[in-house]
Amino acid sequence: MKVFTNGCFDVLHRGHLELLKYCKALGHVTVGINSDASVRKLKGSARPINLVDDRKYLLESLIFVDEVIIFEEETPLNLIKEINPDIIVKGGDYNSEDVVGAELAEVRIFETVEGYSTTSTLQNFSDR
C-alpha cells in the first residue's frame, strides 16, 4: 500500500513520530513537507524554525519514512494527484471529509497524541 501524509514537521516531536510509525504499519510512506515559503504563509513570519532541507533530512533519517517530497503550494493536492496514494493519513485535528485529497484515496485519521504539538513545544520553550 502507498501511504501519504503531510505537514510542516517544523519541530519534530513524539506526536509526529507516532503518526509516522502508524503510517509505516500501513505500507510504503511518502511524506509531503511544506516549503519554507508555504510554512510562512500558514504559520506566520516567525516560522519555520528549521529550514526545509533540515526538516527533510530529519524525516528521511527515520525508519518510518520511505520518501520525503517538498511541495510549494499551500495544500498538497497536486502532489497527491502525482503520487496517487492508496491511503492518506492525517492527525486527529482533522475530519476525514476536510482532508485535502479525500476524493482521491482512503483517508485515515490518527488520533492526536495528547500534549504534543509544535505550537505547545514552542510555547513551553518561550516560557522558560
Keywords:
128 residues; alpha/beta; Rossmann fold; five-stranded parallel beta sheet; 5 strands; 37% helix
* Global outline: globular
Uncertain segments: none
The strand count comes to 5
Class by SSE composition = alpha/beta
CATH superfamily: HUPs
The CATH architecture name reads 3-Layer(aba) Sandwich
Q: Would you give the CATH topology?
A: Rossmann fold
Write the layout of secondary structure elements.
Layout: E1 2-7, H1 14-26, E2 28-34, H2 36-43, H3 52-60, E3 67-71, H4 77-83, E4 87-91, E5 106-110, H5 118-127
Parallel strand pairs: 1-2, 1-4, 2-3, 4-5
Describe the structure in your own words.
The chain has a single domain (2-127), classed as HUPs (Rossmann fold). Helix content is 37%, strand content 22%. It contains 5 helices and 5 strands. The chain has helices at 14-26, 36-43, 52-60, 77-83, 118-127; strands at residues 2-7, 28-34, 67-71, 87-91, 106-110. The chain is globular. The mean pLDDT is 90.
Summarize the structure.
With 128 residues, the protein is an alpha/beta fold. Helices cover 37% and strands 22% of the residues. Helix 1 (14-26) links the parallel strand 1 (2-7) and strand 2.
